[in-house]
Amino acid sequence: MGNIQAVQFHPEKSGATGLSILKEFLRPNSLGTKVPARRKASKLAKRVIACLDVRSNDKGDLVVTKGDQYDVRDHTSSKEVRNLGKPVDLASQYYIDGADEVSFLNITGFRDFPLGDLPMLEVLRCASEKVFVPLTVGGGIRDFTDANGRYYSSLEVASEYFRSGADKISIGSDAVYAAEAFLQTGVKTGKSSLEQISRVYGNQAVVVSIDPRRVYVKSQEDVPFKTVKVSTKGPSGEEYAWYQCTVNGGRDSRAIGAYELAKAVEELGAGEILLNCIDCDGQGCGFDIDLVKMVSDAVTIPVIASSGAGAVQHFSEIFEKTNASAALAAGIFHRKEVPILAVKEHLVNAGVEVRV
Hints:
The protein is α/β, with parallel strands linked by helices. The chain has helices at residues 15-26, 87-97, 118-130, 154-163, 173-185, 193-201, 258-268, 289-298, 312-321, 331-334, 340-349, and strands at 47-56, 62-65, 101-106, 135-138, 144-145, 151-152, 168-171, 206-210, 212-217, 228-229, 240-247, 252-257, 272-275, 303-305, 326-329. The protein contains 11 helices and 15 strands. Strand 13 (272-275), helix 8 (289-298) and strand 14 (303-305) form a beta-alpha-beta unit. Keywords: Amino-acid biosynthesis, Glutamine amidotransferase, Histidine biosynthesis, Hydrolase, Lyase, Multifunctional enzyme.
């Protein structure tokens, strides 16, 4: 049949411009919707993403919460899960406010059977009816065997999320295990969740979420992993650090660095990397520039900077100093400390190309 290339366009996920195109198709004799004049883009626009960590609180209600270095419980005697709002309501508001994408993370997904998590699937269905930008969902995307002995492949799990309204699937722990196996053997088995889903749905539908923790070393030769010279020295004056990856919501450390993991998952079929940092999570002091620069320089796929945003300046800083394609925030948006519109306006004034 020769070489064939195809492009899939989702106008309903393209904001005002996409919706106006849809209206032209439905009402060809109408004048259409006027779209505000915009600056001519000179390069790929940077994205601002709102992230919602979703889990059940102690009363059994599905809520949006936010961690402090991955701890989502209040530092009070009650130790209750922080409740920052309802998932669909917040996602809808972020779309209205100008978020380029919305990401849902089911932060208890690694413990439970995701296809039995009917409330989370319903959240996706309802959000997709109100939010017309790409939706990403993560948490528990892996092979499962339920209580009755029925086996479900990661592809089946992902397919249910896609049918419920997700545009992208985020894989965390399972991608770490797949990368470790690949680096050890050099063989792509095609059986990992990452490989299965990217093969069926395309690389663009698969995001790998990396959760590293900074480990200071005195010398680059101290560890067999990629190190960087850090901007701020360690507690004992260390000038270098490597970033050790974790699994199971940051609970368990693995013998693989963020650099090595990023390179491996790109090779296995990831279309994007969501780069978190446990040390910066919830601190509001800015993204980890050293980490994001190291990884975004190492891969050709887009890198989303996550963890640490506390002010509009942190967004322009990450785009000016690294090759990150997008920046993600959660708590500052949930608590209305920094509106998405303020971030967009600051980036425009700073000369950063964004979607407005």
